[in-house]
TrEMBL record:
GO MF annotation, one: glycosyltransferase activity
Protein name, as recorded: Glycosyltransferase involved in cell wall biosynthesis
Sorted UniProt keywords: Glycosyltransferase, Membrane, Transferase, Transmembrane, Transmembrane helix
Organism taxonomic ancestry: Bacteria, Bacillati, Bacillota, Clostridia, Lachnospirales
Membrane topology listed for this record: Multi-pass membrane protein
SUPFAM superfamilies reported in the protein's UniProt record: Nucleotide-diphospho-sugar transferases
Pfam families reported in the protein's UniProt record: Glycos_transf_2
Cellular-component GO terms for this entry: plasma membrane
Main location: membrane
Segments passing through the bilayer: 240-260, 272-293
């Protein structure tokens, strides 16, 4: 059976959802008609504790179409957690899951290609953006910086791929074994290692509503991505520390040489400067190490990543029996 589920995390997406829902139903009908996916395939909206009418809208959609299901999280837990809630729930009811944002920035028509690639034996199909024409200059630059940084930190992620992807049940089962609280799906999925493929598409601008990713959120996402996947920064600080020690040994030799040859070292400025410099490096290092310790603290508590308040999918068993 090739039962497909499209998972859509939504946070205050009232404005975008009407449009998105019509488009998704459309593509789903097309897929079912082509015989590529099972006719019991469905769409799962995850309401990530929205404060607007998102959940009501989802419930209305459900009344209009048997293909629609909702998953309501008890509070806002962020994009990555909401997506995880959707994936891990959908996994129990579907053979393959496609995740897509609610704002339809990603081209839904490539879902057909994704399913084709799945049918040809790929467990993971990454949606990759061709161009970034619709992104603001700022977003383009920050994205470029982000990927460069990831490269530098030796973290394997797929270039220009966000969270638009297909995953097989097998891949999702494997994903469910990654228990970390500090979630960064784009970093985890390539670690799964099952056969994968990519499809290209053009990213559009949001259909409606505003981006939920502020500069601060993007920065913390990059920081999260780095410190959850790489201990490279700690290595770099060790290297920096070593470099500074070597440099100060040379400086000490030079100072001693100047002293015995009678030249007086003009000391004050350099002393003060080096104290500040070393102080800065130390603070930075302690802060960074603290970040990793903080992560250990968060991970060892093993708190739940989300709480499900309502799950329409549980009705499936009743309907079938
Ligand atoms: N989202 C969510 N919880 C949040 C923030 C965002 O579920 O706390 C959802 C949002 O509704 C959207 C997706 O995550 O479907 C991506 O968010 P957005 O489009 O704002 O990000 P951008 O495309 O600007 O990076
Ligand atoms: Mg978006």
């Amino acid at each position: 059976m090739n039962k497909l589920c499209i998972v859509v995390p939504c946070y205050n997406e009232e404005q975008a959802l009407l449009y998105t829902n019509a488009e998704l139903i459309n593509i789903m009908n097309r897929l079912v008609k082509s015989g590529k996916v099972d006719k019991t395939s469905f769409i799962l909206y995850v309401d990530d504790g929205s404060k607007d009418g998102t959940w009501n809208l989802i419930c209305n959609f459900r009344k209009q179409s048997a293909m629609i299901f909702g998953l309501k999280l008890a509070r806002n837990t962020g994009h990555q957690n909401a997506l995880t809630a959707g994936l891990l729930t959908a996994m129990n009811y579907a053979d393959m899951v496609i995740s897509i944002d609610a704002d339809l920035q990603d081209d839904v028509s490539v879902m057909e290609e994704m399913v084709d690639l799945y049918l040809r034996g790929n467990d993971i199909v990454y949606g990759v953006r061709n161009r970034r024409d619709t992104d603001t200059l700022f977003k383009k630059f920050s994205a470029l910086g982000f990927y460069r940084l990831m490269q530098l930190m030796k973290i394997k992620i797929v270039y220009n791929h966000a969270d638009y992807r297909l995953m097989s049940k097998r891949a999702l089962l494997q994903f469910s074994l990654y228990k970390e609280r500090n979630l960064f799906l784009r970093g985890i999925v390539p670690l799964i290692g099952y056969p994968s493929a990519t499809v290209m598409y053009d990213r559009k601008s949001r259909v409606a509503g505003r981006s939920k990713y502020s500069l601060g959120k993007m920065f913390s996402m990059a920081f999260e991505g780095i410190t959850s996947f790489s201990i490279q920064p700690i290595q770099m600080i060790t290297d920096l520390g070593l470099g500074i020690v070597l440099f100060s040994i040379c400086a000490a030799i030079y100072a001693f040489y100047s002293y015995i040859t009678g030249k007086v070292v003009a000391g004050w400025t350099s002393t003060i400067l080096s104290i500040w410099f070393i102080g800065g490096v130390q603070l930075l290092s302690v802060g960074l190490i603290g970040t990793y310790i903080g992560k250990i603290y968060v991970e060892v508590k093993e708190r739940p990543r989300y709480a499900i308040e309502v799950n329409h999918l549980t009705e499936i068993r009743h309907e079938q029996s």
